[in-house]
Each structure stands twice: as C-alpha cells, then as structure tokens.
Amino acid sequence: MEVDNGLADHLKEKNQDHLLTYWDNLDPKQQARLKKDIEAIDLTELEGFVNRALSPPVKNGHSDNIDDLMKPIPAESLGCATDPCDENVKRWEAMGLEEISHGKIAVVLLAGGQGTRLGVNYPKGMFNVGLPSAKTLYQLQAERILSAEKLAEQKTGRKGTIVWYIMTSEATKKETSDFFDEHNYFGLNRSNVVFFEQFTLPCVDFNKKIILKEKHKIATAPDGNGGLYRALRKHGVLEDMEKRGVEATHVYCVDNILVKMADPVFVGFCREKNADCGAKVVKKSHPDEAVGVVCSVGGVYQVVEYSEISQETAHKCTESGKLMFSEGNICNHFFTLEFLKDVCSPTKEMALHHHVAKKKIPYLDISGATVTPDAVNGVKMEKFVFDVFKFSKQFAVLEVERKDEFSPLKNKDSPQGNSNARTSRWALMHLHHRLIAAAGGAIKNSEGQIITPEDALKQQGQEYPVQVEVSPLISYSGEGLAKLVKGKELTSPVHLH
Ligand code: UTP
C-alpha cells in the first residue's frame, strides 16, 4: 500500500515523519495498524502537551521560588483522626455511615498504572502479597466495600450501595475485568462495579519525536492517574454517578493494602467541613522523607514533591517546634460530584499540565532492531490526580495514622527493601494483630509463646512473627471482634473469617 500523501505531509509538518521510516518493509496489515494508530493521535494537541511539559510555565504564574510561596494548611481546614476514641472521629464516622446508607458515596480506584517497579506482568490489583488467606489486593478492596455497606446498615437500618468505579488502562483493562469475572466480582453485585479506561499518550524522545517500539507500533503509556478527569468526562462516568444518586467519591490508589474503602470517618469529616475536595495525609516520618506534602502555594492548594523544595524548607519548624510541612500525601482523596463536574470540564481539564517522567523506553535502532536502553532516552507524560486541588473552593485535610492506613506496594521484594510484598504483609498483619489485642484476644506463636503487637515491632524489617489476619467480611475496623476473641489465646496461623 502506498502511504497516504496527506498523512505523510501532516507528519512532516509536525516533525514526526520518521514514523514512516519502515513503511515499505511492512505487510498490508501492519501498514493499516500503523496508519490507524497515527491517525488516532491529535498531533497538534500532542505538540502542545510536549512543549508545555518539557518547558512548563513558571509555577502558579510567579517567578518566585516555590519555597517562599509555601504555607501550611490553615488550622480550620485540618482535622485529626488518629484517635478512634475521639468524639470528633465518632461523629464523623456516624455522618459517613449515614451518607453510605443513602447510597451517596462511591469509590474510584486508580488502577491504570503499569506497575513497572513491582515487575509483574499482570495488573497490581491481582497481586497476592502472601497473607494467610492468599487474598489479592482487589479481593481485599471488594470485601471492604461489602463490609462498609454492612456496617452502615447495622448503624442506620438502611442498606446503601457503594458503587465501585475502576479506572483501568490499555495495560490493565482486559486482565482486570477477566479477573473480576473469574472471581464472581468477589461477592459484589456486578452492576455496581463500573470499569472505564483511561487514555494513553505516545512516548517521545528528548527531541520531541514519537518513539516507535516496533516498525509498525508506537510506544505509548497511560496518561497518568490524573488521566482520571479526561476519562471520567469522555466515558460518561459522571452521568452514571448522577443517575445513581452519587454525591461524593473516595478516590484511592490500587497499591495501598491498608486502604479503608469509602472511609466513613473521612467522608463524614469532609462533609462536616463542607469540602468540595479533601485529602488524607499522614505525618511525615522525618523531614527528609521523600513524600509529597499537601500545602498551599501562592494561595492555592497543591502537593509539593520533596524534590521541588530546599532542605531548609523541608526542615522548617513552627514556633511550637513541630515540622511546618508535615502533611504527607497518601493518595486518598474526597471529591464531590459537583467538584468533579467542574474539574472535568474541557477548560479546567486542559489547564492541568502533564508532568514529565524520564524513562528508559525501548526503541528501534537504524536497522529496525529493538533496543532496550541502559539510560533514560525519552519521556512519558502524566497528569497527577491531585493536580485538581488548585480548583478547590473549600479544601479539607484529615490526618490519619500511618500504621493503620498506609502501606503501598511499589517494589519487588528484597531483604532490605521497602514498599514491597513483605512490608505490605507486615503492615496488614500488624494492624489486625492490634485490632485483636484491643478486642481482648492474644496470639501465640507455634511454640506456644504469646507475641504481642509490641513484641512484633521489635522485628520490623523481618517477616511478621505470627500469621494473623481478619477478614473484612467480619470487621471493617475492629468492631465486633470482642465477641470472637475476648479472653482467648489463638495460635498462629490465625485467620478470622
Ligand atoms: P504509581 O505512580 O505508583 O505507578 O501509581 P504504578 O504504575 O503503580 O507503578 P510504577 O511507577 O510503574 O512502578 C500510583 C497509582 O496511580 C495509578 C496506579 O495504578 C496506582 O494506583 N495510575 C498510575 C493510574 O491509574 N494510571 C496511570 O497512568 C498511572
């Protein structure tokens, strides 16, 4: 097949005519595939994205240093839920359960990432970290939805549905939906699980040229978890939410094994604050922890990455001696439907710029052979889910306990490593061990020796000293455990289900 002149001219005009380098060596099917993929790219839009991403405008229109513009979250927008016995926390929880019981709360899962650091060839949500139950992340999350619905029903007498919206990508779509089918939606009603797909963008080299990964295939990557907003708009998801009576959403990442689905405390807190947008945070473990902090910059809220600020700012303290910028982002967000409608509008969505991730992207050499580079050779462009904070008119931030709520699975297992399957197992078993201990139960190891959660802490960095797990179908966050464990000594492995 001859190459279409119009297409060739357009590519030339956009400086992308190298995409046709191997055209004459392709069979008709491959030519058709390449043509279709090229035509699907809006090259003018892409040019704009690349130019803005590679030479971003000065932050917030100010030429000043970001450090000088940063301000902590004002006290009136902050809440603390680290003590479950606190009256505020109990009130927020009751409010959140009330909302859930009316079916007003949905959860939105960001599951379109490629999980390159974990290095498995299937979606991260399908990962089994090695708990006694062998449950995958998806199963734990599904069961926590059932558990939150049940808790709300027990407290209010009304059964509300929590709809689960799952954003996948080209990389994760089919396997994820097949997995849910195979497992019968883990007990959820399948009509209350809604999959939608985020978009991809071509990867470009440092000369802004689109990279070919094969002679007839363009290298692409998902457009970041902030691709959420375009995907919500273009797939009609907001209309679906409206139709179902959803008023607010809890948005979270697939890889946090401790995530509290539709967390009633967080929902109630954000509702009480009348927030359109909210974020859960954990206290930074130390000033140099490489985590983004939630703060205000030049009058708008945002997440500032550790790499964007000076050491001096990272170490700055308040008059009372506390770290000034200590609100570590854990990708747990609250958005009202009205806020989502606003930020998903084309003008607002387009005002969110792509960030550049420099990566090693397989490419073709002059002979057309695939090369896996040793050094970064190009960029993936990604939007971030928290980039919309700047549009919030009423922002709220809730501090939660890290050991109860945050343990991300990012990396392959390694003895000294962090954020891997071992640390995920550890975090979940330690939490469940503490819940059992608080309910009056004790856990013995196989030698008959009682191991307390405090004993276990001395073995951090190793395997958890006992096997302990509580199914979400028994308890959402510790309620109801006393009648099962009070006064009992249970021998590891313990799996309450
Ligand atoms: P990460 O930034 O940790 O990326 O995503 P990742 O894909 O899981 O892992 P690496 O960086 O390739 O090793 C944080 C969350 O955002 C989602 C991920 O699925 C995860 O829940 N995400 C990321 C998307 O939904 N889409 C994307 O394009 C990128």
Descriptive notes:
By secondary structure, this protein is of the alpha/beta class. It has 17 helices and 25 strands. The protein has an 8-stranded mixed beta sheet, with helices on both faces. A 3-stranded antiparallel beta sheet has the order 1-13-14. Strands 7-19-16 form a 3-stranded antiparallel beta sheet. 44% of the residues are buried. The site of uridine 5'-triphosphate has 22 residues, from loops.
Key features of this structure:
single chain; 497 residues; alpha/beta; Spore Coat Polysaccharide Biosynthesis Protein SpsA, Chain A; Seminal Fluid Protein  PDC-109 (Domain B); 2 domains; eight-stranded mixed beta sheet; three-stranded antiparallel beta sheet; 17 helices; 25 strands; binds uridine 5'-triphosphate
Separate helix tally: 17
Structure summary, number of beta strands: 25
What oligomeric arrangement do these chains adopt? single chain
| Count of all domains | 2
Our estimate of the beta-strand percent is 15-25%
Q: Radius of gyration in whole Å, from Cα?
A: 24 Å
CATH architecture field of the largest domain = Alpha-Beta Complex
Which parts are unreliable, with pLDDT below 50 for 5 consecutive residues or more? none
Strand order of the largest sheet: 2-20-12-15-11-3-4-5
Average the pLDDT over all residues and give the rounded result: 95
How can the largest sheet be summarized? 8 strands, mixed
- According to CATH, what is the class of the largest domain? Alpha Beta
